[in-house]
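S.,

Sequence below, as promised.
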Amino acid sequence: MFADTQCPYCEKDVEINHDDGYGYAEDETYTQECTHCGMTFSYTTAVTYSYEPAKAPCQNGEKHNLQQIKGCPSELFVAKMRCKWCSEEIIVDQKAHDNARKAYFEELSIRSEQAQTIATRR
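The prediction came back faster than expected:
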């Protein structure tokens, strides 16, 4: 396990206390007491970014490498695919997609009406 930082006094590993989001904002100075030596030290926060390049053949003339998207409710993902390389989402059968969504929302409407009917009977 990696520590957030080291105490500048005793040089032991210290975890920064982020209760309620404390210590995350950049351009601010924070203080914390070392759990090892009891000395209070100050620290600032810096956010860094890293990038992982990957080939995207579909952006260079090849076909998308499509994979079925899975989600819940599954009816909202019928005929919806995502390219493994570029993450573009494509509906491969618009009619099937629309029909599944329509049926799902109709079922929700029916269930809602049934729940309201039961509630009014009580």
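The two ends are 56 Å apart (CA to CA).

Coffee later?
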